[in-house]
Amino acid sequence: MTGAALQGLWYLAGLSREVNPGAMVRRILFGEPVVLGRTGAGAPFALRDVCPHRAAPLSAGRVSGEAVTCPYHAWSFSAADGRCLSVPALPSDDARDPSTIRVARYALAEANGLLWIWYGAGEPLFAAPDIGLPPSFRPKTATVVETSGPFDEAVVGLVDPAHTPVVHKQWWWREGRPRADKTKAFAPTALGFKMTAHAPSSNSLIYKAIGGAPVTEIEFRLPALRLEHISTATRRVLALTAMTPGEAGTTRIVHLNYWDFALFDALLPFAQGMADSFLKQDGDILRLQNENLSRTRHRALYLGDADEPAKWYFALNKAWSEKGEAEFVNPLAPATLRWRT
Fold first, then answer.
1. Cα–Cα distance for residue pair 341/234, rounded to 1 Å
2. Which of the residues 25, 95, 292, 334 has an alpha carbon 20 to 30 A from that of 170?
3. Do you find a cis peptide bond into 331, omega within 30 degrees of 0?
C-alpha cells in the first residue's frame, strides 16, 4: 500500500447499502484492490481482491454462504479470515492443507449505514468512529466524488473555511450575500479538533430552513473525517464528509446527510441534487489545483487565521506519524480564530 495515508486508523470504505447479502463490490483503497462483500447471512467482510493463485479478482467470483470463490479456478476462501478452504484441482488424496494459504483480510466495522475499514497491521486498536447518532439513523443523501491530487490537499479542504464563499456559489447557500467577520472558538479532541457549539451563519438559507434556533458544532478527526452537527430543541441534522485514498493520486470523497424530521424528507430529491452540486464543486477545484501540483513543486503560503486549521491538520498528521507505539498526544491547544466569509 502507498504511504499517503496514516496507518492505524479507520477510513470510510463504503455505504452499507452498496453491498447486498451474497454480493461483492471491488474498490481500490490505499492503492490496493479490495473486495467489500456480505456473506449469505449478511455479515460484511473485506479481503484483498487478489487471488493468491493467479491474481484473479475475487470480486468477479461468487459468495457461497460464508465463503468467496475465485472466478478463475474456484479456489475458495473464508470471508471471515481469508483462509483457503478448498482447491478443487487437487487430487482427492492430496495431503496438502489449503488452509495454510491466505488472502489478506481487512477489519471492517458497520454502523449508521457506513462501512469502516481499518488501515494498519494487526487488529484494530480502538473502535470505529462514533458519529454521535442513534444506531437507527441512516444517510438520507449520499454523494460520492472521485478527484485527483495529493490526499493531504483534499483533506485540507475539509477544514478550510475561506474557500466556501468562493467555490460554493448557489442561491440556497450564500450567493450574493455580503461577507461578515467571524470569530470562532476551537478546542482539541481525541483525534483532532472542533469548532465549539455556536449559532450557524445567518447568510445561509440552509440553516434557516431547519427552523428554530439551530446550534452547530463542527469537528475534524484524523484521518479525514468532518462532522457538522446541527440541532434545535426538536430537530437534528448531521452533515458528514469522509475521504479515503483510492488509486495513487486520487481521493474518494463521500458526503452524507442525516436528519430526523419530515420536512426534509419531503424535499429529499431536491436535497440530493443540492448535495451533488456542492460536492462536485469541491472535486472540480481539487482537479484544477492538481493541474499545477502535478507539474511543479509548490509550498503552500498560509496567511491569516482562516489557514490555521490547515496547519493544525499537518501538526496532527505529524504527531500521529511519529508516535510509534506510544499513546497519541494531541499537539493542539484551545484557540479563537477570526476570518471573513
1. 29
2. 292
3. no
Average pLDDT, the chain: 93
Asked: is 9-119 a CATH 3.40.50.20 domain? The reply is: no
Which residues touch 125 (CB under 8 Å, ≥6 apart)?
8
| Full-model pTM | 0.93
Q: Which residue has the cell 443523501?
A: 141
Q: Please report, for the chain, the start and end positions of each structural domain, with discontinuous segments joined by +.
A: 9-119, 141-340
Q: Which of 140-144, 145-149, 178-182 has the lowest mean pLDDT?
A: 178-182
The pLDDT tens digits of the residues spanning 62-96 come to: 999 999 999 999 999 999 999 999 999 999 999 99
Q: What angle do CA 240, 243, 247 make, to 5 degrees?
A: 155
CATH of 141-340 given 1.10.1740.10, 3.40.50.300, 3.90.380.10, 3.40.50.170: 3.90.380.10
